[in-house]
Design a protein that fits this description.
This is DUF4367 domain-containing protein. The protein is an alpha+beta fold. It has one domain. The protein is built from 7 helices and 9 strands. Strands 1, 2, 3, 4, 5, 6, 7, 8 and 9 form a 9-stranded mixed sheet that branches. The longest helix is centred in the N-terminal third of the chain and has 14 residues. The chain starts with a helix and ends with a helix. About 25% of the residues have low confidence.
């Protein structure tokens, strides 16, 4: 994918992230979650074909900012609809929610757990309001995702583990599967695991030939706009599955001690 295109994407999303100090709260992976839905892999004809791409400066992701209204106008030229997302600290729940509470909040009851066997425990629950609009600004769809956040003893600020669930159709879900995803089946459910390196770089950074190769292979994502003008490397893992009309997505950022098997086992615990 063209680096200038990536820079424009990141710059536009930064412009649309509005800080509101009184009640601002952003999940540490909010930028990832929204960008995952708006940015698909671009082919030679300018068509987007993949949903789950992670591109953003790590330091900006973990900042306490409220996404009031995110409109990715820079992709309008590709005839891609705009996506708006919003989340607030005012709706954050710090006690493990009952099924009734979750249904009241998002309109459906997903599978979810209070803790995982590897030590991660429930931290907060929230939701994200999402809205898709076409090029004319007409709302195509409104929906919510249920967002669960987990921590373990000794967690650092730049570490995040979350699970996001939303209603979707199986076709849309399958379109979002990475070409490098490792697939396995558990209790009749297909689980996809993916891991890639994320590199936060200053604007104007020129990828090396090796980095370009890794990008083409889907093993590296580069985010432009590092606030401290340094190159920082993170490891991002995600695991996703589709069950009963819902897509489940667990993302791990910077808990480097988690293995592929750890991620898969967490998915199995939720499925059970």
């Amino acid at each position: 994918m063209n680096s200038k295109f990536n820079e424009k994407i990141d710059e536009k999303i930064k412009e649309c992230l509005i800080y509101k100090s009184d009640n601002a709260s952003v999940p540490e992976n909010m930028f990832f979650k929204i960008k995952n839905e708006i940015l698909k892999e671009k082919d030679n004809e300018g068509v987007f074909t993949k949903k789950h791409v992670l591109l953003k400066s790590r330091t900006a992701i973990i900042a306490g900012i409220l996404v009031v209204a995110l409109s990715v106008t820079c992709v309008a030229a590709t005839n891609f609809s705009s996506i708006f997302g919003s989340s607030s600290i005012l709706t954050e729940v710090k006690t493990f929610p009952s099924k009734d509470k979750v249904k009241e909040t998002v309109g459906f009851i997903p599978k979810y757990v209070e803790s995982f066997k590897n030590g991660f425990e429930f931290n907060t629950f929230n939701y994200t309001n999402k809205e898709i609009q076409d090029e004319k600004g007409t709302t195509i769809r409104k929906y919510k995702s249920a967002d669960f956040y987990y921590k373990k003893d000794g967690s650092k600020k730049d570490q995040s583990l979350s699970m996001s669930i939303q209603k979707t159709d199986e076709k849309s879900f399958n379109e979002g599967i990475s070409k490098n995803a490792i697939s396995l089946e558990y209790n009749g459910v297909k689980i996809m695991y993916n891991s890639k390196q994320y590199k936060s770089v200053p604007n104007g950074y020129k990828p090396t030939d090796e980095e370009k190769h890794l990008q083409n292979e889907g093993l590296l994502q580069i985010g432009y706009g590092s606030e401290d003008e340094k190159v920082e490397v993170s490891q991002v893992q995600d695991i996703m599955w589709y069950e009963d009309g819902l897509s489940y997505y667990i993302i791990n950022m910077n808990y480097n001690g988690l293995s592929k098997d750890d991620m898969i086992n967490m998915a199995k615990e939720v499925i059970d």
